[in-house]
Design brief:
Blueprint lengths: L2 H22 L5 H12 L14 E9 L8 E5 L2 E4 L3 E2 L2 E7 L4 E6 L5 E4 L4 E3 L4 E3 L4
Antiparallel strand pairs: 1-2, 1-8, 2-3, 4-5, 5-6, 6-7, 8-9
Amino acid sequence: MSAMNRGFIVVVFCSLSMQAQAFGDLFTSTLQRQAIDAMRERGGVEMPTMNREPNTLTINGFYYKGHDKREKGVVWVNGQQAKQGEKFNGITVKKLNESDQTVNVTVGDSGRSVPFKAGQTMYLDDHKIVDAYQ
């Protein structure tokens, strides 16, 4: 391989590397970039955040375990995995309905069960349910 070809290959790899670094900025907002830069300046240590309950309830998805009688399935609520009957953050996963592809969830101590489809979000302030595309 000639010296010119080797030089060309080095230039191509260097330019690809620079483009890849700039490409990463495309998928973050300005605030996210500032937070990442601040974290890097602190040596990679994240600042603790306040743990507060979200004002929305989102059913990210669920799946059924068809032949397992002990455990019917798993639900992801606000990004956290939950099993049927589990309670966390004032939310109880009641029942997975495979036939109509919904999951019944109880919010708070009301005892009222609300059916959700995957991707739906409930605003806890006014109990309005919206689909993911809205």
